[in-house]
Amino acid sequence: MSNGMTRREREITDINKIIEILDKAKIAHIGLVDGDEPYVVPMNYGYVMNDGKLTIYLHGARRGRKLDVMRANPKVFFEAECDLQPFEGDIACRYGIAYSSVMGKGIATIVDDVEEKKKALSILMKTQTGKDFEFEDKMVAFVSVIRIDVSEFTAKYRPMPAMKL
Ligand SMILES: Cc1cc2nc3c(=O)[nH]c(=O)nc-3n(C[C@H](O)[C@H](O)[C@H](O)COP(=O)(O)OP(=O)(O)OC[C@H]3O[C@@H](n4cnc5c(N)ncnc54)[C@H](O)[C@@H]3O)c2cc1C
């Protein structure tokens, strides 16, 4: 992946700041390739960051377009953002929005193993709520769980413009 990020001074490389974004964002836009068409699905997620290696977990219904697409092509891209703060300017091109965001690519796997599904749902609930939840076998039977093994990710922020005194 090209990481020739424009406005490189806005790149975030501090892993703790990236973790903060992943804790706050709650929703990821998952980019898929459906044949020769792009397809993007917003989803809640959970994540694990282990020694700089990022794993994302998703859950949802057991059928639908995104699952069909992932089975045919497991390559995915994701983006998640937080700290959105619109700001105004004296002319149109000085309006904007402050943000922090993370994006990256990975391979999606539909998880069948019951123990991994239970673990993934606990991780997802921890990311979403900050609370610990445990799942029983029968609870996980009704949902699909997707694991994204992220191979590369980057993070970026745009600060609020400096106040003019
Ligand atoms: C903030 C947010 C969080 C969400 N979190 C989750 C989650 O954690 N898990 C989860 O499974 N789903 C979540 N959803 C719903 C998700 O975006 C999809 O609607 C859902 O997962 C079904 O996707 P699918 O590919 O199986 O679509 P299908 O049900 O197979 O639908 C196919 C068609 O329906 C239309 N469609 C599907 N979803 C949407 C949509 N969201 N908006 C408009 N049109 C749509 C598209 O045209 C698509 O081609 C969330 C949605 C939002 C907005």
Give a topology summary.
Layout: E1 11-12, H1 15-25, E2 27-34, E3 37-44, E4 46-50, E5 53-60, H2 65-72, E6 75-87, E7 96-111, H3 114-129, H4 137-140, E8 144-158
Antiparallel strand pairs: 1-8, 2-3, 2-6, 4-5, 5-8, 6-7, 7-8
The structure holds flavin-adenine dinucleotide (FAD).
Mean pLDDT: 95
The largest sheet is:
8 strands, antiparallel
Stretches where pLDDT is under 50 for at least 5 consecutive residues are none
CATH superfamily: Electron Transport, Fmn-binding Protein, Chain A
Tell me the total number of β-strands.
8
Strand content: over 45%
Q: How much helical structure, as a percent, in the residues?
A: 10-25%
Supply the CATH architecture.
Roll
Q: Tell me the Rg in angstroms.
A: 18 Å
CATH topology: Pnp Oxidase, Chain A
**Mass-distribution shape:** globular
Which CATH top level class fits? Mainly Beta
**Terminal CA distance:** 42 Å
Please tag this protein with its features.
single chain, 165 residues, alpha+beta, Pnp Oxidase, Chain A, eight-stranded antiparallel sheet, 4 helices, 45% strand, binds flavin-adenine dinucleotide
Structure write-up:
This protein has a single domain, classed as Roll (Pnp Oxidase, Chain A). Helices cover 24% and strands 45% of the residues. Strands 1, 2, 3, 4, 5, 6, 7 and 8 form an 8-stranded antiparallel β-sheet that branches. The protein binds flavin-adenine dinucleotide.
